[in-house]
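Suppose you are handed a protein chain with no further information: no name, no annotation, nothing but its sequence. What can you learn? This example shows the usual starting point.
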Amino acid sequence: MNRTPTVIEMNEILLVITNLPDAPSAEKLARQLVEARAAACVNQLAPCTSTYRWQGNIETATEVPLLIKTTPDAYPRLEKLIRAAHPYELPEIIAVPVTAGLPAYLDWVNGQTTTSED
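A reasonable first move is to predict its three-dimensional structure. Written in structure tokens, the prediction is:
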């Protein structure tokens, strides 16, 4: 059986990851990103424990991860908003390209992050 796979263009959608120190700051940032149309959807995950080296010391902290769905066009706006609102001196902001997904969902992400400026 030959099936034609659904092909999604590389870098059409991004999954951005960041961590915040607590649930209220994570929820506030998530709402800001969606209201600004910098993100279509933000998942606030359960608190996790992060271990990292910072300024020469090994640190451990409880953090709240956010999974943010956006597009390359909206990414600069998203990064600017995260940097402005984030309480950390050096926030984690990692963008991972989505290489496949449900086409209707990916179209929805695109539509939700489009502004008149794009």
